């Protein structure tokens, strides 16, 4: 039976939940919600780690399948459109594309994740999440001090989406707003037709202006000024959250009408059971009946439940906030012992094989390769002891000198102190090949003049770049020439390929970008020695028959080293 665990770690509180079972049917094995004892003079990491360690030990959480849900307080969400749908390309350009939309961050100090909202033929629309690396490092440090190996870290926004999807609260014909109220921030997600459409953070939480319940008095006593001030601040926080939820509902770009607001996290008096812009507000109940959840206060466990549910393999959101570090460290640690055992068994097996092979090689050397070497030497340089005359005329002195120690060995004796007979046979073969090559040079059969580089191969190399990007570029090739350039003036031999071509696209800007991509693709090839940018002039061309524009380039020169091209292919 699978077992997973998730922690939601906030600035002042934390929750944990342990699930047993599968994605379709599981139960809550343990849960806990507690507060951090944050002494102003103590180390906050040590204090939080101590609380997590005690809770983990008390509830016997699993060691191998743990995730962490962190507060969305410092996160930023942006919508971004990119002109392609390939996931690998999106990962490569994501930080550069979204950098201008995040002026409050240094792009090198944040981890950027994305979720695809829409995919079209000409690109994709993304929901981008940016989280400061310092906040993620703080959470990881707390977990490491507590002895918790967090396989993945996500935000409250994605966790509550997975929790809502597990409870089948989001359908194709309706829209909802999912809310998680934290200590100092409220995470909001707009879901339309079962798909995430928007995420945002309201920088106001249940504990932003005091603790909920500070306004309560005992025994009907007259409330003090401090109590009344706390009640007023709590009331202001509730009004602020309701007002921001109203703005979210009013400005949401959804196809279906928003029919409900589902709230999780800390309780706010007067929020659940009311309405926001005539939209009813419910508690986000993602737990099945009799699944082990508490009777009251289960809303604060929703985010942790979403993280644990994802660890079981469920959910639709797959965030990854540990993408820029050793993401698979936990998986490798689980494989260390079996890999070490397999390596030990393999080493033992290979050792036995080596012993057996060494004995076989010794037998083959004494009774096989040595006899073959002696026979070969007797044939080539002669041996008077066996009445063998040399067949080489004139004999090679170096070969004759090396053959004498082997000729004096008695049959069946091991060649101790001499080179291995197999290695000696290889040397004899190479020596004879070298002598044969010298003779061919002397008679003129071999001339040491290398052929010129192939102009056809150089053209093929350049055309391969266009063919590899045929789906993205629309290119008209008007003329193609290739000329071999011999080495002179300190330059290597190469082939100069000159192209007259036109890049077509819906706009001139897009056509120009395709041409720039073509130049970058050429520069990335090891066989491309560059091109003369001063001789390239791009002319904007419009097609009167079709609504398209093009960039016409005449005489685009590319220098190709064909030898490197063949090395790359091999």
Proportion in helices: 25-40%
Q: Please state the structural category.
A: alpha+beta
Low-confidence stretches: 212-219
CATH topology of the domain at 455-569: STM4215-like
Mean pLDDT: 85
Strand order of the largest sheet: 11-10-9-12-14-13
Number of helices: 12
Net shape: flat
Could you characterize what this model shows?
It is a single chain. With 570 residues, the chain is an alpha+beta fold. Among the domains are: 351-443, no CATH class; 455-569, 2-Layer Sandwich (STM4215-like), CATH 3.30.2000. It is 38% helix and 26% strand. A hairpin with a 4-residue loop joins strand 18 and strand 19 (548-560). The longest helix is centred in the middle third of the chain and has 53 residues, at 329-381.
Question: What brief labels describe this structure?
Answer:
570 residues; alpha+beta; STM4215-like; six-stranded mixed sheet; single chain; 19 strands; flat; 38% helix
Concise overview:
This protein is of the alpha+beta class and 570 residues long. Helix content is 38%, strand content 26%.
């Amino acid at each position: 039976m699978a077992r997973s665990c998730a922690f939601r770690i906030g600035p002042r509180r934390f929750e944990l939940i342990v699930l047993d079972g599968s994605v379709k049917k599981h139960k809550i094995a343990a849960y806990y919600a507690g507060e951090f004892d944050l002494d102003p003079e103590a180390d906050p990491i040590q204090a939080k780690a101590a609380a997590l360690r005690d809770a983990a030990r008390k509830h016997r959480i699993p060691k191998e399948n743990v995730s962490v849900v962190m507060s969305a307080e410092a996160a930023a969400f942006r919508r971004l459109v990119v002109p392609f749908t390939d996931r690998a390309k999106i990962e490569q350009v994501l930080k550069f594309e979204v950098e201008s939309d995040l002026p409050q961050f240094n792009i090198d100090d944040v981890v950027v994740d994305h979720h695809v909202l829409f995919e079209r033929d000409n690109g994709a629309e993304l929901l981008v999440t940016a989280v400061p690396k310092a906040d993620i490092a703080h959470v990881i440090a707390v977990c490491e001090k507590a002895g918790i190996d967090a396989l993945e870290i996500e935000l409250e926004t994605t966790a509550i989406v997975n929790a809502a999807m597990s409870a089948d609260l989001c359908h194709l014909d309706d829209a909802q707003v999912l809310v998680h109220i934290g200590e100092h921030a409220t995470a909001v997600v707009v879901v339309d037709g079962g798909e995430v459409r928007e995420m945002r953070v309201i920088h106001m939480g249940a504990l932003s202006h005091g603790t909920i319940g500070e306004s309560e008095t005992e025994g009907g006593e007259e409330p003090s000024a401090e109590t009344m001030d706390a009640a007023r601040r709590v009331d202001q926080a509730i009004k602020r959250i309701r007002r921001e939820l109203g703005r979210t509902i009013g400005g949401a770009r959804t196809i279906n009408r928003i029919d409900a607001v589902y709230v999780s996290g800390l309780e706010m008096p007067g929020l659940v059971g009311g309405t926001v812009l005539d939209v009813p507000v419910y508690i986000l109940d993602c737990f099945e009946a009799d699944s082990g959840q508490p009777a009251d206060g289960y809303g604060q466990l929703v985010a942790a439940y979403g993280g644990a549910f994802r660890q079981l393999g469920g959910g639709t959101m797959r965030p990854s906030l540990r993408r820029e570090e050793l993401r698979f460290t936990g998986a490798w640690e689980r494989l260390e012992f079996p890999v070490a055992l397999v390596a030990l068994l393999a080493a033992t097996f290979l050792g036995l094989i080596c012993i057996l092979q060494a004995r076989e090689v010794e037998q083959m050397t004494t009774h096989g390769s040595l006899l073959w070497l002696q026979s070969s030497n007797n044939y080539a340089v002669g041996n008077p002891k066996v009445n063998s005359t040399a067949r080489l005329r004139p004999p090679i002195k170096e070969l004759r000198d090396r053959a004498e120690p082997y000729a004096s060995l008695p049959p069946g004796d091991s060649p101790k102190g001499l080179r291995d007979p197999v290695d000696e046979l290889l040397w004899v073969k190479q020596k004879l090949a070298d002598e044969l090559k010298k003779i061919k040079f002397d008679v003129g059969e071999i001339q040491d003049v290398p052929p010129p580089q192939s102009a056809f191969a150089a053209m093929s190399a350049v055309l391969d770049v266009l063919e590899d990007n045929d789906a993205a570029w629309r290119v008209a090739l008007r003329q193609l020439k290739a000329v071999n350039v011999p080495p002179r003036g300190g330059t290597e031999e190469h082939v100069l390929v000159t192209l007259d071509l036109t890049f077509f696209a819906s706009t001139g800007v897009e056509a120009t970008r395709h041409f720039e991509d073509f130049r970058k693709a050429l520069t990335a090839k090891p066989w491309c020695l560059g091109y003369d940018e001063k001789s390239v002039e791009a002319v904007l061309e419009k097609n009167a028959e079709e609504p398209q524009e093009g960039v016409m380039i005449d005489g685009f020169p590319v220098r190709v080293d064909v030898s490197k091209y063949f090395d790359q292919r091999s």
